[in-house]
Amino acid sequence: MRINKFMSLSGYWSRREIDRFIEAGLITVNGQVCLSGQEVSLEDTVLVKGQPIPEKEQSVYIVLNKPPGIVCTAVRSVKNNLVDYMNYPVRIFPVGRLDKDSQGLLIMTNDGDISNRILRSEHNHEKEYIVTVSEPFGDDFLEKMGRGVEILGTVTKRCAVTRISSDTFRIILTQGLNRQIRRMCKELGFYVTRLERVRLMNIMLEGIELGAWRHLSDDERQTLFTALYGGTKTASPV
User: Band of the pLDDT at 236, cuts 50, 70, 90?
Assistant: First the structure.
């Protein structure tokens, strides 16, 4: 299998991290610097920074209510990073991102494969947000948001948008462009003052205080695995 999948199955790195290691020449296969997309097998000797791949840890699946000001990275040299904030005893990383100023639901895991499956845009996994903007908006704003807004050289996918109050709305996305909601609002003349993710697929934020976290329940994991793997994956939390 390709080196990215081979290494992500260890649950120790995300595929993005692995790509960075490959670009930096930090991975070797049988003593040779690994190439992007290289095929490997269990018989090959794969080293990262000169060290063998750690044995797979027991799988961890956590839902965190991220407060504003915390940066969605596992890089500990970054101030206010997630790893230092949670201080969890097993190495975990975020599934996707919430920008520093945003808050709400964030999945933390050591399972690189499940992270990749959730993030694949072609699977159209739903992410739900509650957004407050700088001033009241009309129904035309909701219509334009739902129809799609041109940002980053593309038009966003159609999405469900409903009004909560004069300056707050609920939006359900199936894609994850960089700072997508903030860019969409700005393009239409509004500035986001509060952005909270309240749902990712079947995982809900409800009941988790800001800054707190909990492990996914058995039912949540099973429903998630069924959506991602057709129910073939099983795992036990730490």
Answer: very low
Model confidence pLDDT, tens digit, residues 78-124: 999 998 999 998 888 899 889 999 999 999 998 888 888 888 766 78
Indicate whether 236 belongs to any domain: no
Q: What is the CATH number of the domain that holds 160?
A: 3.30.70.1560
Is 196 found in the same domain as 130?
A: yes
Range of the domain at 216: 61-121+202-229
Whether residue 238 is predicted with pLDDT greater than 60 in this model: the reply is no
Kindly report the CATH number assigned to the domain that includes residue 23: 3.10.290.10
Catalytic residue among 84, 99, 139, 167: 99
Please write the tens of the pLDDT for every residue from 148-205: 999 999 999 999 999 999 999 999 999 889 999 999 999 999 999 999 999 999 999 9
218 a catalytic residue: no
pTM: 0.76
| Residue 234 maps to a domain | no
CATH of residue 218's domain is 3.30.70.580
Alpha carbons 159 and 188: distance in angstroms, whole number:
16
